[in-house]
């Protein structure tokens, strides 16, 4: 299938969440280069006024910021979601503030912002591009809060498509592992995924999202790379096989001592009968 020309975004009115982050800031630069009229939302606004201050966990803040953005843009053609967090947690522990934040930002932040933007999107026959993750169907250790929130956000996108798809396009993009600051928490906890899974480039995700936004018809689900597309199909059509392969891979990683950098990994090692490395 031929890739849609990104030039189709010229003149489009675009709102980007997580606009000061790695994916969001890169997308904003490309959108401006393409001639799109783009406004961003982020906890960290910029001095130029292109990124408005907004905490997507705060409903009132979301309503105000989305209202200000759509007024500035004069309508809304595309809403692109990048806002997200990725804490390291033990799925066997009681859900803590880190888990709640992941759900508030990744799932409910997407929901709140979309709900606030829907009147403008419906009026302009616009499109929503939701950034999920391949991990939504491929759970890895200590990423459970992220995995659950991203699985939920794919369900949200599917529900939005079912109820509003006659008037608003909906695409879910499923990136793989990309080395961005979202992984800082897992690195600090000593359970980084660095080198454990195939890495994708930041530009792969940015281009996948912008191509979905530029396409004449909104694709339903897209991955960022050919390998990601294969993984997405596998997780959708052979989940039992994915479960078995994942369990084997985790056991191998534990035996090799590659998930042993922090106290959070102790229980996993004990369940596999592998002592935590010392020194």
UniProtKB/TrEMBL annotation:
Signal peptide positions on this chain? none
**PROSITE patterns xrefs:** ADH_SHORT
Keyword Oxidoreductase included in the entry's annotation: yes
List UniProt keywords, sorted A-Z: Oxidoreductase
Which InterPro entries does this chain map to? NAD(P)-bd_dom_sf, Sc_DH/Rdtase_CS, SDR_fam
Task: Report whether Electron transport shows up as a keyword of the record.
Answer: no
What is any Pfam family matched here?
Answer: adh_short
Q: Which family does it belong to?
A: Belongs to the short-chain dehydrogenases/reductases (SDR) family.
Entry protein name: SDR family NAD(P)-dependent oxidoreductase
- Native species: Nocardiopsis endophytica
